[in-house]
Amino acid sequence: MRFILLIFLSTVFLVNCASKPPQQQENICTIFKEKSSWYRLTNKSEEKWGAPIHVQMSILRQESAFQNRAKPERTKLFGIVPWKRKTSAFGYTQAVDGTWDWYKKETKNPLASRVNFADAVDFTGWYINKTNKINGIKKTDAYNQYLAYHEGHGGYKSKSYKDKDWLVATATKVSSRAKKYQQQLDQCRSQFNKKIFGIF
Question: CA nearest 97: which of 109, 113, 121, 81?
């Protein structure tokens, strides 16, 4: 009985550690050092969808700060009582239910979960690729990719972001962070590639 309890507690501990957000989120090299599997997973998404790692990571940093169970704040009933959440956005990606269902159906991955980092980066790569096809936005264009990510493909096409100064400012922040991530990754990417290929 004690042995089973020990295994259970160890599993809970490992899951909690694995899902804990990185401590230093403004340096992509530090993130990948702390989260040993994340480079391999984002690199896999990049190879599959052509979505640059630094763009994927900047979007996820903005959406959830890498919290796997992030949710929108609740609205307030009568300005006091916690009520319904603003949207069904959830997880690393903050994808809403309908978009996540679209992803699962199109990729034939019915068990994909928004709390799983591997699924989250695959989704992000898929969405960046989708935006490129639907809206013609370059996959390297973090600014416009984020606007389409936030507003949806139809919203981006109708320029719904034009009246949202806060969103334009946020997209600018995502773009700036993506450039910084890219510069940082240029300095450390080779060491993570070596680990993937088992050189050390």
Answer: 113
